[in-house]
Amino acid sequence: MTTTLEETKRPPYGIIAILLLGAFISLLNETLLNVALPSIMKDFDVTASTVQWLATGYMLVNGILIPITAFLIQKYSVRGLFLTAISLFTLGSLMAVLSWNFPVLLSARVVQASGSAIMMPLLMNVLLNGFPIEKRGAAMGIFGLVMIFAPAIGPTLSGFLIEHYSWKMLFYVTFPIALIILVVAIFLLHDKKESMPIKLDGLSVVLSSIGFGGILYGFGTAGDKGWSATEVYLTLIVGGIALLVFILRQLKLDVPMLEFRIYRYPMFALSSIISITLTMAMFGAMLLLPLYVQTIRGISPLDSGLLLLPGALLMGIMSPITGKLFDKYGARVLAVTGLTITILTSYMFSRLTMDTTYTTLMLLYTARMFGMSMVMMPVMTNGLNQLPARYNPHGTAMNNTLQQVSGAIGSALLVTIMSTRTTTHVGELAGSGLAGQDLVNQATVEGINDAFLLTVFVALIALVLSFFMKRSKPGEDFRDQKVASKEREEDQDQSDMEPASQV
Question: Which membrane topology term applies here (predicted)?
Fold first, then answer.
């Protein structure tokens, strides 16, 4: 029996299940390769800066393609888009399995990313349109389970596979799963939507690619090459100018590629700001903790991944529960509670020492993830709930794009803070009796502490903003407001003319 997306009271559970599987494997793939980078460096005899392109390239393709998904979702059917996305992802996985040199592996990651970029906004849009507003919290809670749980277990799974097998085993795992999802989707995924007669503005695509791509690349390489590097500040400047021109062009187009006027809806605008600050804090911590655990403390990649696993499992368990609590109590109570926990645990992470126990690190990280599980999905869902249905594709594309950008900014900012403060602490600790590697390790720990302290202040901003949140319901379409305003003006003009005509 086929699954059909129709205008019925019953949500399209079959379609959602297939899309969830696709989203899960694509998100798992994002973090799966990070632990394997040293092994790939050795096998292909490439430098650290070269191998990093496997992660940077993936991020860039996502950042460039995600803004275009708002147009794609409006124009094409769910079936067509998902089959294209999962086919690209499957092809990329096969290329990675067969890769015999680094350029082929990098090309495989780019192909994978081009499929992955479509899946998340597509799934979010189906969830928003498939459930009534009073049940969206529970639906988005399931989505949150995938969005958070999949990338969180990536390092643990990757650490296990790398320790026992070759790095290619990562793709031997993802390829057959992706292929099965593709086959299932071909036979079971159907919907009746026909292609809409809207055209993609070519100049908008170019400006978006340069704008978001430049900003992502600039911040993505700033932590490694430093802010003074020409390619860093040049790409940031070019990206910033292109993004500004892109936004101005979207505001002038009757059918924009990405609708920025959705920021007229206050709850969506507020949710975006809170999500940006929280993503910066979360992504930075996901970078800092493994650095402390593996580089400073010498804990193996597998044990490092296991350290993060309880937090990932708890976050996955909490996501559907949080969704139901959101439907009952709204976003503000959850956001305030979750951000308070996040701030307290982030502060405790800023007190790390060379002797902090493995158990303490695990408990702190798990508690931090518990706090964040109460914030991310409720805040995002509350913002999307205020958008009229026609703007759901733009809202989901905007949220996913901002997540990519804020993650890159947060990582670059925290790595910069850590590096500069480590240099400062080396000078301060010079007379403490420490020398050599012990001095460097202690200074690095202090630098990591300072970076974690910054996440406390970032989360504090989000906490203050969360007090202004209100339960959302769909607002009036601003295009309808414009039409109504024009009609009122015409009526007023007509009424002004009536006395004169009577005379």
Answer: Multi-pass membrane protein
